[in-house]
Amino acid sequence: MEELVSLCKRRGFVFQSGEVYGGLQGVYDYGPLGVELKNNLKNSWWSSMVYERDDIEGLDASILSKQELFRYSGHEETFSDPLVDCRSCKSRWREDLVKDGKCLSCGSTDLTEARAFNLMFRTPMGPVENEESFAYLRPETAQHIFTSFKNVQDSTSRQIPFGIAQIGKAFRNEINPRNFIFRLREFEQMELEYFVRPGDDEAALDYWRDQRLRWWEDQGIEPSSLEIYDVPESDLAHYSKRTLDIMYRFPHGLEELEGIANRTDFDLGSHTKNQRGLGLVSETKKNDESTMRLAVQDIEAKKWYVPYVIEPSAGVDRGVLAVLNEAYTVEELGEGKERVVLRLKSHLSPIKAAVIPLKKNKEALVGLAKEIKSSLQSMGKGRVFLENTGNIGKAYRRHDEVGTPVCITVDFGSLENGTVTLRDRDTMEQRTVAISDLNQLYLDSLK
Questions:
Q1: CA diameter of the chain
Q2: Mean pLDDT within 314-342
Q3: Which CB contacts under 8 angstroms, 24+ apart, belong to 149-154?
Q4: What is the number of domains present in the chain?
Q5: At what angle do helices 32-46 and 201-218 cross, to 10 degrees?
Q6: What is the pLDDT of residues 246-291, one digit of tens each?
Q7: What angle do CA 222, 225, 228 make, to 5 degrees?
Q8: Is the residue at 126 inside a domain?
């Protein structure tokens, strides 16, 4: 983990937020390369969920949430961790992390009794601060999908089964954020809520397990690094009938990368019932199932029902950490030399190609390099970088470290013969190619 953290700071992937003031625990900033990697991972997820399928729609819901939403979803009552305090060093820990009754910081056994600590952030809303005028920063993106279910279905005419996908920020007041960007207070989720008929839920859970495993493998995660954990009934969330966790071997150990939960009709059912309780449904129609705001009609059976939901939910930040860890490679070059290579899948690489003029002060070389960079950039495959440092060896090593698939060197032969040197990140093979063939060779390198 120390090597990854060092690389992330040195090369501009991830920084501690507010570092000049000592940092803010559990909050990180993504730097110039980190934001590209993060966006590429999100784009890959969005493409696989929305663009490549015909049964899923997208959503971008609000971060601020009404109190009632998380009251009736069960979060106010259940979304908490057991907290203990160390009387000796004043540190605080989640009870499940404490081993043998000893403080993880000082080893003292003088700990308080565990008490519930609610993980949701509250914020005042409006000009007057009181217990009635506050909102929650959402602790998950799922609930807004459920409350928007009918709006999405009515506006798109979707029929069951179908899904709603969302990528967005969530906030949890973690007692002990830890392990770099693995457990954070501010993080991003990639969540799908897939709505099915009751009775089809178990097969759908198995289907999405297989789909999600395949997708992570497409992001460069080796199957041997992944395991499926069938969460015991005693550890299930309050809404879950069954949950399968995709576990990954992070640098700090085997931990959850993505959860796939069978939420049954808990959420849609809870919000429907409480709409009635809040008077959002006419008293004279309380027993009319057609008034259930979050239900759908079975035309053939002539009845209404609340769909079941399968939820694949992945953390973007954990995904970034996993693909970085999987791609990070140290190669021995002989004679005591080594190189660090990020063997990222090309669709995830922050920089798709680096164009490097042999001499930075040679106007003709730099001008041609800029033309090549502009031509490749216009193809819309991602960021193309002009590496105008004049040191070819250091430029190659830098781009190996950040995962750039190819480097293109513009030298004096480029001016005379219309050729450049194309270097492959993984094999370090260099070959001379015609500039006229470069666009197609660039595309081929990204496959």
A1: 86
A2: 94
A3: 149/193, 149/195, 149/268, 149/294, 150/293, 150/294, 152/57, 152/59, 153/296
A4: 1
A5: 140
A6: 999 999 999 999 999 999 999 998 888 765 443 334 444 444 443 4
A7: 115
A8: no
CA distance 447 to 442: 9
CATH classification at residue 428: 3.40.50.800
pLDDT at 315 over 60: yes
Residue ranges making up the domain that contains 354: 349-445
Separation of alpha carbons 312 and 116, rounded Å? 27
Smallest Cα–Cα separation from 383: which of 12, 48, 6? Answer: 12
**Residues paired with residue 261 on neighbouring β-strands, in sequence order:** 243, 311
Q: What is the pLDDT of residues 14-58, one digit of tens each?
A: 999 999 989 899 999 999 999 999 999 999 999 999 999 999 999
198 within domain boundaries = no
Residue the block writes with tokens 């459920």 = 146
Instruction: Give me the helix-helix angle, 316-327 and 32-46, nearest 10°.
Output: 110
Question: 84 forms bridges with which residues in the sheet?
Answer: 93
* Rg, the chain, Cα only: 26
Q: Is residue 402 part of a domain?
A: yes
Which residue, among 119, 137, 153, has the nearest Cα to 62 in the 3D structure? 137
- pTM for this prediction: 0.89
278 neighbors 256 (Cβ within 8 angstroms):
no
Question: 353 lies in a domain?
Answer: yes
